[in-house]
Structure formats: structure tokens, C-alpha cells
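name: query_chain
kind: protein
chains: 1
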Amino acid sequence: MEFPKMTAVCVCGGCGRTIEKDYVFCPWCGRSRVTDEDCEEAIESAFDRIEEKQYEKCVQRLEKMEERLDSLAEDLDVLALSWEMRK
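structure:
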């Protein structure tokens, strides 16, 4: 026998009815569950995550550039040595 999946619920501050926590608005009275303060925190958190991802991408690109430069330096050393040996 399979039981139905339980969902997280809360009580609406407007009408007092039980609603799912995932709801942004109460389906009974239409009151928003999200306050302006919650929105500001969510937006700030989202921007923090975006900045963090951008920083991580920049670090990854710099590491790849460093690897490429090291490889080019090695190739240049080989070319310079072979040029010197030709003389």
C-alpha cells in the first residue's frame, strides 16, 4: 500500500486556513505570504549567488589562461632551443 505524499503546510495570516508552504498567495483569500522584507532578502540572496558564480567562473577562466600560458612558454622554450641548435 502506497501512502500519499505529505506536503508542508502553514496557516494563512489573512483567513486562517491551512495552505501549502510552497504557495506564494493564499488560494482562499489571495493574501501574499511574502512580505517586502522577505522579497528583499530573497533578491539579495539571489544576487549574492550570482556574484559568487561569476567569481568562480572568472577564477576558472584565469586558471585555464595560466595553463595555456605555461604551455605556450614551454613551446617557446623548445622553439628557441631548436633555433639555437641550428646555428
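note: The longest helix spans residues 36-86.
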